[in-house]
Specification:
Number of helices: 19
Distance between the termini: 56 Å
Helix content: 40-55%
Structural class: alpha/beta
Radius of gyration: 22 Å
Number of strands: 10
CATH topology of the largest domain: D-Maltodextrin-Binding Protein, domain 2
Number of domains: 2
Largest sheet: 6 strands, mixed
Shape: globular
Length: 429
């Protein structure tokens, strides 16, 4: 059996984004299937930072399945889609690929690369919004098992808040006052990396989700009662411009990794990101006292608006239709739907598991999960507006960059977002 250390060396040799090597890497060793002797299952992922955690997780599986080795191979996130498409098109792809969710899953489904899991995996007790991420839009079949429920989060440095006499704000005025205080002290209030446009729709949800109305707006826009030119949505985009002065100077030239370093080094007070960032932030500075908060509703928010935590499903696992070990691969994916796997994801990967009933020992992760359960809303540009091209997230990401550069205002950004998605989006009623 391949040892865990030798597998690490193999993965390092492959390199994070080595497409050529990935395409020719053997999918699995010869041997039996369904737990037989000598079966090696390859699992591909875009989460290089989670390699050690997944090796611990799959050690648990291997101990319960003698003769099965799980070889976890992560690749650079920005190159993963191309690497995966090449692998699935040939004979040397992974047995179990980590696949995208919602709209980004549909191309992989249409290619016939994945095995339908209906009747093999039971997700009937799961959150419907989570399960929707794993289905084909056209045929409604289940093609993957969701890994995690991600959520938008405003992380904050507890020590910086305490040292400067600032309480966690509960009103918009208090939030602005906190930002002003940090700015006067020479501390960057909001660590934003706008060079990476994919992060900006998330930043928008964190800072202004309650300004456009969260779940209520999602229901209105998906049924055709409203669109993205609605005054409340335009105002939510304007919130980003209003808060730009609290972000790093020349924010469109700052990468998200640099923004995270500002936060973990104590040079920034808050970092708007996703729950998937927690483990990275903790590794970046193990002594950092991280807290999470919901941004209070900005001025002018719809009546009754409260702070919200937007969420979505992410990082699903599927079975390659060309895998020579479909039975064993399916058994592994079935295990990924169990509480045992879900708890390991929470404990080792430090993410909110998609599996119901998981508990969280990390207090920060527990609060994010609780906030999502209590006042959660969908990250609608991902959950509902990625099923066509151009996607909602791409349009808002690039539009927000232009907003910060001063070449477009909030109304233009919102109008172009609406025009783009309405070329393919059809309201449900």
């Amino acid at each position: 059996m391949t040892t865990r250390s030798s597998r690490s060396r193999i993965a390092l040799a492959l390199g994070a984004g080595a497409l050529a090597l990935a395409a020719c890497a053997p999918s699995s060793s010869s041997g039996g299937d369904g737990g037989g002797d000598g079966t090696t299952l390859t699992v591909w992922s875009w989460r290089v930072e989670d390699k050690a955690a997944y090796e611990k997780i799959f050690d648990v599986y291997e101990k319960a399945h003698p003769g099965v080795t799980v070889d976890f191979k992560p690749f650079k996130a920005t190159e993963y889609n191309k690497i995966l498409a090449t692998g699935l098109a040939g004979k040397d792809g992974p047995d179990v690929p980590q696949v995208r969710s919602y709209g980004q899953l549909q191309g992989t489904v249409a290619s016939g690369s994945l095995v339908p899991l209906d009747g093999k995996v039971d997700l009937s007790s799961w959150d419907e919004n989570v399960v929707a991420s794993a289905k084909g839009k056209t045929d409604g079949k289940l093609y993957s098992v969701p890994l995690a429920r991600q959520a938008t989060v405003l992380f904050y440095n507890k020590k910086l808040f305490s040292d400067n006499g600032i309480q966690v704000p509960t009103t918009w005025d208090q939030f602005i006052a906190a930002n002003d205080t940090f700015l006067k002290k020479g501390i960057t209030p909001l660590a934003v990396g706008a060079k990476d446009d994919w992060t900006l729709p998330i930043v928008h949800e964190v800072l202004a989700g309650s300004r456009f109305g969260g779940t209520d707006f999602q229901k209105a826009v998906t049924t055709g009662q409203k669109d993205f030119t609605d005054p409340d949505f335009v105002a939510s985009v304007e919130v980003l411009k209003q808060l730009e002065k609290y972000m790093p100077k020349s924010v469109t030239g700052v990468a998200v990794t640099d923004a995270m370093t500002l936060f973990t080094s104590g040079k920034a007070a808050m970092y708007p990101g996703g729950s998937y960032d927690l483990a990275t932030l903790q590794k970046g500075n193990p002594d950092l006292e991280v807290g999470v908060m919901q941004v209070p509703p900005p001025s002018g928010a719809p009546s009754g608006a409260t702070g919200t935590t937007a969420g979505w499903a992410d990082g699903n696992f599927a079975v390659n239709s060309k895998s020579p070990h479909q039975e064993a691969a399916t058994e592994l994916v079935q295990w990924m739907a169990t509480p045992e796997f879900g708890q390991l994801v929470a404990d080792e990967v430090k993410q909110i598991s998609a599996v119901p009933g998981v508990t969280y020992s990390d207090p920060v992760l527990k609060q994010v999960a609780d906030d999502y359960d209590k006042t959660g809303s969908p990250y609608l540009l991902l959950t509902d507006f990625r099923y066509g091209s151009p996607t909602g997230t791409d349009l808002l990401g690039k539009g927000a960059q232009e907003l910060f550069l001063g070449s477009k205002d909030a109304k233009t950004v919102s109008t172009e977002l609406n025009t783009g998605v309405m070329t393919w989006f059809k309201p449900t009623s």
